[in-house]
Amino acid sequence: MSHTDARSVSTPGLMPGQLGTADIIFMILACAAPLGVLGGLVPLAFAFGNGVGTPGTMLLICLVMLIFAVGYVRMIPHVRNAGAFYAYIAISLNKQVGVAAAYVAIIAYICAATSTLGAMAFFSTDFVQEVFGVVTRWELWAAISVGLIAFLSYRKITMAAKVLAVLLILEVVFILILDVLILYHVGWPGLDFSSFTPAAILAPGFGISIIYAINGVVGFEATAIYREEAKNSLVTVPRATYGAILILGTFYVFSSWCLVLSVTPEKLQAVAAADPGRLLTGMGEQYLGEWGRNALNLLVVTSLFAAALGFANNIARYFFAVARDGLIPAVFGKVHPKHGSPYIACLALTSIFVVVIGSFALAGLDPLLNLATSLSSMGAVGLMCLLTTTSFSMCVFFARRGEYSLATIVAPLVAGVLLAAATFLSLKNYSALTGTDSVLVNNLPFLFLLVVIAGYSHGSWLKRNRQSVYQRVGSTSVEQEVLAPSVG
């Protein structure tokens, strides 16, 4: 059989060769919503975490993620599947655990996406009322956003990548301008590096700041989700993984440090605690006037929209991966003949968004205090559990192959231990993430136990009754990049 013939019978996949390193980085950074993190999570870390030590904590967490990435990118040549976590765990541990991981990943990403849409709808309403004096319902902005996301997800992935690139560049450039103005204002005498000392980092509240720091960078692992659509993925995806972590880390550490300098280390905790939600916009108004505050408020909206779009692309590709492997109906694995997108999965996801957001709306619940608060933290904890499991699973995978080295065993093991500790801290201090004393909200993460049981049970049933499907779990892939082009 010629290489061309081999290609023709390979498993149908997503359209290859569409995304370069920069495209994937933009997709990942958009999911992180850097402006949302800087304006929302960082002030909370200032107020209720270790305060001045927050920039140093951000630096430590980024180093942990870099350690994780060392083993993560070494797995790329062995896994050609859009399921990322799911596929890594399935081929490293066993397929039942892989199925459970797929369920957890999908629900965690859905929680992240819907919570982001809720926050975006709230801030859209607030922005329109403050700037134009017009009162609008949050449901209107949620509906518009879901419609736009459905359109962009349905089309070719490069369209979504371009939209995300523009939105991301706008918010990052604006924040960097603000950073420069802060440094210019404080001058050399105002520079203070105590944020990076052990005493500041390990101050009371360190555990809470770790939670917020991890929430800011979780999502970089999705680089592997775009493996099939990447140009020269064996090079592109590792570069994008390291690039996303380094860019996010540099941005968070530098910008949060600038905020510390602007308020001054001595006053930081008190000022942040007084009104954490308006700390960043207050800085915008102080250095750029009223238009600076309004611009920041608008960019928060676009940042959250970009994050929701990025999460939607992640979820659609997870649906595609598990459908292609036979875990859910095959229709969800269909690829659009023109756009190369998993369009049925995108339409299904749109329906899920409508149901979840519509349920909160019909119940008369608040989009920020109820929808965003209850689901964002749950999604973050789910993804942290997957990061931890993936770290340990990589050790198992390489040990079975007899590949013992710093990159294949030590780095994943160290990352796994550190991520497990961070996950424990997240659960222990979960009320700090949600900002509520509600017993129902603060026990939502335990629903993942039911999800794991359901997924593992499904995998066990497949092993007993559907061996052909069971064998495909986590291993179905498109082989075009390892096949030489046909000659003659």
Automatic annotation (TrEMBL):
Name of a matching Pfam family: AA_permease_2
Membrane topology, record value: Multi-pass membrane protein
Subcellular localization: Cell membrane
GO molecular function: transmembrane transporter activity
Keywords (A to Z) from UniProt: Cell membrane, Membrane, Transmembrane, Transmembrane helix
GO cellular component: plasma membrane
Protein name, entry field: Amino acid permease
Coiled-coil annotated spans: none
